[in-house]
Design brief:
Among the domains are: 1-43, no CATH class; 46-86. The chain has helices at 2-15, 29-42, 49-81, 102-125; strands at 16-18, 24-26. The radius of gyration is 39 Å and the shape is elongated. By secondary structure, the protein is mainly alpha-helical.
């Protein structure tokens, strides 16, 4: 084990070139592969129960956070779709064009006649 590790360190020291930021970089892919093979020799092949349980707890915690975030996004979408929480049944459905009362049409027509009269009066004077 020590021989393999010292051989790897020797190869690494010969093949590392420093980058501008001072972090080492392996220059050849075969040396990176050798380093991975040596590390895999010393890693356990099976995971123990405690590690698996801790991973499960971590993933369940992440799932809970994601579900809470999804629920928050759905609430935001629902409030936008239903006019800040107003139920859909309470909003009147529009069928076609809006109807205007006869009195409203008369008021609009009278206002327009008044505008035209003022415009024509100004043109005759000027």
């Amino acid at each position: 084990m020590e021989a393999a590790l010292s051989t790897w360190r020797l190869r690494q020291s010969q093949s590392i070139s420093d980058t501008a930021n001072g972090h080492p970089r392996i220059t050849r892919n075969s040396e990176a592969r050798d380093a991975c093979e040596i590390l895999l020799q010393f890693m356990p092949n099976t995971l123990d129960t405690t590690t698996l349980q801790m991973a499960l707890i971590g993933y369940e915690s992440e799932r809970q956070k994601i579900q809470e975030r999804i629920a928050e996004l759905r609430r935001q979408l629902k409030s936008r779709d239903h006019r800040a929480g107003t139920p859909v049944a309470d909003t009147p459905a529009r069928n076609g064009r809006r109807r205007m009362s006869a009195a409203a049409r008369k008021r609009i027509a009278a206002a327009q006649r008044k505008r035209w009269a003022a415009y024509h009066k100004k043109e005759k004077a000027g």
